[in-house]
Structure prediction request, 318 residues.
Amino acid sequence: MSLREFFTRAVENWPAKVLSLALAIFLLIYHRMSLLETRIFFTPIVIEQLNAMMPSNSYPRIVKVSLKGESQNLNSILEEDIEAYVNLKDIRTAGTYKVPVLWRKKGTAQGVEPLQISVDPMEITFSLDHKVSKFVPIVVNFAGQVEAGYNMNSYSIEPNQIVVEGPAALMGSLSELQTELIDLTGRRGDFSVTASILHTDPLIVIRGEGTVTFSASVSQIILVRNISNVPITVTGLDEQFIVEPELITANVHIEGNDSNTVETFRPSRGFLRIDCSQISESGDYVLNILVQAVAGLNIRVEPREVKIQISPIPTEEE
Prediction:
């Protein structure tokens, strides 16, 4: 067969032959693809190139990723090496936009063939607003009470305010953020804990570590009571002398931790006294007031000393 005859026969009915070849290639590809396995997982969406804008509405945070390929290749791909993302670099005004969800291969997914990748949803609708940053104070959120008989005198948090970012529409109404519950139950002394800042709106971004250091001063409650004009007993005075004035009193200041002990205390006879056992002649004396100890009470007397006059007992002739 001459070359001319071969060429003539080759191009004879060429549309049918091309169609048959294309169909054969399609069937081959379809057959190969039908032999491929599918792997499905979910991955977070990365938002890129936001510039001065931020999402102001809820949107899907994850997408479904479908991989189709040979079994041994699919099993070798780490989920984090298929990244789903949206690019918002061209959006500079507030509004609502429908943006395609894109994907890229990294690490273990690179160079894997054959590999088909699809994401669901394929598009996401964003409402975008201008990004606003500001300082917001932190408010402590307490739970429980310190131990009975104790009091939290003071507390502090560090830092007491943080920088947050968010869409302008939300940031206008944001005046404070709270910490997680700080439990005071049973506390009997100073303590310090690290507490997370509650972050309930995913559209608001907290800059920094998102925690504060809480420090508190806790001490026992000191109950105070004053008792006026408590009689002072004279002891040890020689029988040949008398004391003037006959009634000597002082004021008593008591402190204690137990309310029952403080409130029910009643000074007994001899609770306050002065010791005159060293006095052997008449005259004016200044003596210290002696106080009887009472368990659970801290006692202070005012004045701490008294001035008395010692005179001999008058005789009948006098």
Q: What stands out?
A: Helices lie at 3-11, 14-34, 71-75, 168-171, 259-264. The first strand starts at residue 37 and ends at 48.
